[in-house]
Write a structure and sequence with these properties.
2 domains, 8 helices
Length: 133
Amino acid sequence: MNEITTEKKFNNIISPYIKKIEVDDQNILLLNYAAFYELIKDEYQNAISYFTKIIKLEPENIWILNYMSSCYIEMEEYDKAEKIIKKSQSINDSDFAHLLYGLIHYNNGNYIKSAVEFGKSGELFSILISEVK
């Protein structure tokens, strides 16, 4: 199956769920579908909009905070990404947050801080590096 057909099929599957948000914009599941749909399409600002709505409903959801931070990293808005990671870390320390911190520090040229954070990320940094090779 070629890439265009796969993308079209995916859009056809997810579109009805996205349309339901117009009727029920408080539905966490629908908001997650929409946020990750936009993330997959590399539409980071749109994903952030949905992640923000989810955070209003679930303010201590560290995974949504971490994914929102990753969008800001992709957009090279490292200060915003770091602010969100700090909030996530204040709720619960996670390996994924340390990985994101490492990426932020690395992209800001703080290589020693990035190495420290990558070291705190458990196996995630090793997995990331093995994927890049």
